[in-house]
Amino acid sequence: MKTDAVQKVSYILSQFPETHETFIVREISEMERQGVAVEIFSLKKCRDKVIQKEAVPLMQKTHYPNKGMVFQSMGLTIFFAATHPLQMARILSGLFRDNRKKPSYLLKTLAMVPVGIWIGWKTRQAGISHLHAHWATVPTETVWVASQAWTIPYSFTAHAWDIFLHPGNLQRLIRDAARVVTCTKFNKKYLRDKFGLKFADKIDVIYHGLSISQINDHREKRNEPFVILAVGRLVEQKGFSYLIRALNLLKSHSEKATLWLIGTGPLRESLENEAEKLGVRNWIEFRDVVPQEEVFSLMRQADVFVMPSVVAQNQDRDGIPNVILEAMAHRLPVVGTSVSGLPEVVQEGVTGRLVPPESPQELAEAILFVKRNPEKAKKLAHRGRELVVENFDIRKNVFRMREKLGLVGS
CATH topology for 214-391? Predict the structure, then answer.
């Protein structure tokens, strides 16, 4: 594997770092380890209380919005509009035409026009020849502006809600991009079916990566009963309500268990109320977001990891949640649902147990299988780690991304 790239790239993100986006931190860190110079632009200041350790050195060189940037970007925009009126007209008309059905989203994209022009200018000043955004919404719209203004090729990574719930014209962003990266085969099929085969060749499936060699998969001793671990934002598409109902079914079978539910979100109160109503509140430990090393420690202590994902009423859904990959890398048996990209990693009876979404009964049965068949569960966990090692190694996947984006030195 070549790691002698001399290329540079600008990364544009909505907020950097973001607690739930450790995969982006890993990707940028590995880019730099492989010799790519990365300039990071965060459209918002970081307001998260939990900052992952690997993100701290990257924050020190990230461009965050400040008064100086605002004044400079406004001045650049006025100058650009005066000297390139037709280009500015095309940029504004494109945003108006494609995003007018969602006025709030249109206003956000228009507000980013000066920022995009400033980012493009800074990118040119730094001798950088490629722009890359994560999430196919405002960050990519901003990169599109920069690309249109300064003729710099761009790419973007599309993940989940930004594909299924995109409020503007995703087709334009794909059409004008040099490459599009997405993190599941399911996503690529969805985009191909929606926008036609003409874009299929520029869409690359590149899985997120883990630094697998740094993961300690040694099991830790504890005094708890059977422990179920679940990690994620407390929102509808995570399906935690069905996990609580499954826990109630375990109780009805006189099967003791403890659920560690890690995460914050708008459904916290309703989930607690549901657990109370079903009589399993004292079986559940609700914990707020914790640093990654603490999540990894919990993975070494738990007996099974459950990701009960569903398709939300607004059609939002997971891709392949990174926590399920982390659990598999820790040789922790996993139970998932057949939603979106999850079947690409949780293969029924091979690397884990896969059940239909919104089915507490089948969730409970899969959890009971792990509890009652520890040796069989151990074999599933072993094969799960093998799959992660083969397909989700951060070094291999970032190098492949560099090749697709033209970030490998000749």
Answer: Rossmann fold (3.40.50)
